[in-house]
From TrEMBL:
Species whose genome carries this gene: Sphingopyxis macrogoltabida (Sphingomonas macrogoltabidus)
Keywords: Acetylation, Hydrolase
Gene designation: glsA
Family: Belongs to the glutaminase family.
Record note on quaternary structure: Homotetramer.
Protein name per the record: Glutaminase
Keyword field contains Hydrolase: yes
Gene Ontology BP term (one): L-glutamine catabolic process
Binding, substrate: S66, N116, E162, N169, Y193, Y243
EC number from the UniProt entry: 3.5.1.2
Length: 310
């Protein structure tokens, strides 16, 4: 499929999604997110040759929320390598993204890095040897490098809004701390975590930031991770990136993806495309209703499922 055909397809997918009856509702437990219009949808597709296709509200910045854990995991693996896995599982949770139940059964070890407990533990890991300010700075610099865009920033209002409403994440953090799976104070860890989540990117910037996963760990300006590591991060996205909807999403779209509660999804077709879609209305799993629909339509029309093209 050439760029012009893909451009038309992306516009069609957006139009079909906008016409969909049920877009779901925007997250309201983080007050700053509740204001988003659930029906807006934007999409951007970055390709290995550097071309970019986009449609809808592709240039509206949104906070990464849990998508940030893909980048936090990449940094963490760069920091301590596979030793990281002593502190994280690699299995789908089958429970809600913010659930605490498995933490008790599994000794304070998050089932995977992509549920909230995992993302909080990643912030803790990336704090060593930094102060929170430095850890946040490192994270933003990494995103700017990946997206090749110095304008990426943290929305302090969103970070503050989440911190003020973080009872549940605080509970997860204290629980892990009680099991000895945090190395820093709960306040420092949560403060870092909410700033990761409040990194603001639009669809084009996010699609560009995902290119290293599309290209076996490489970027046009250098290698980010080994091919093996890129493959493994994608495997985790496929099995855990959409929380307890990961199985159904693999069934529908068949590509690795990671969602966030602001309605963003980063999806990767290895060797072919890095896709960012965003629509704030959520389904019951906390994934974007129209975002999931858009990725299903797109992969069906392009044959991009990793399980086969027909
Ligand atoms: N910052 C959000 C939270 O902690 C992230 C959750 C998500 O994106 N699913 O609840």
């Amino acid at each position: 499929m050439d760029c012009a055909e893909l451009e038309k397809l992306a516009a069609d997918v957006v139009a079909q999604c906008v016409a969909d009856a049920d877009a779901g509702v925007a997250a309201s437990y983080i007050p700053e997110l509740a204001r988003a219009d659930p029906r807006t949808i934007g999409i951007a597709i970055a390709m290995p040759d550097g071309s970019m296709v986009s449609a809808g509200a592709f240039d509206t910045p949104f906070s990464l929320q849990s998508i940030s854990s893909v980048f936090a995991l990449t940094l963490g693996l760069g920091r301590i390598g596979d030793q990281l896995w002593a502190r994280f599982g690699r299995e789908p949770s089958g429970t809600a993204y913010n659930s605490i139940v498995q933490l008790e059964r599994e000794g304070g070890i998050p089932r995977n890095p992509f549920i909230n407990a995992g993302a909080i533990a990643l912030a803790d890991l990336n704090l060593s040897p930094h102060q929170p300010k430095e850890a946040i700075g490192e994270f933003i610099r990494f995103l700017r490098f990946l997206a090749d865009d110095l304008s990426i920033f943290v929305d302090q209002n969103i970070a503050r809004s989440e911190l003020a409403a973080s009872g549940r994440n605080r509970a997860l953090a204290y629980f892990m701390d009680a099991f000895g799976n945090l190395r820093h104070g709960v306040d420092e860890v949560l403060g870092t975590y909410v700033h990761y989540c409040a990194a603001m990117l639009d669809c084009c910037q996010l699609a560009r930031a995902g290119r290293f996963l599309m290209c076996g760990g490489r970027m046009p300006n250098g290698r980010v991770v080994s091919e093996r590591r890129a493959r493994r991060i994608l495997a985790l996205m496929l099995t855990c990136g959409m929380y307890d909807e990961s199985g159904d999403f693999a069934f529908r779209a068949g590509i690795p993806a990671k969602s966030g509660i602001s309605g963003g999804i980063l999806a990767v077709v290895p060797g072919v495309a890095s896709i960012a879609v965003r629509s704030p209305g959520l389904n019951g799993y906390g994934n974007s209703t129209l975002g999931v629909r858009a990725l299903q339509l797109l992969t069906e029309q392009t044959g991009w499922s990793i399980f086969g093209s027909r």
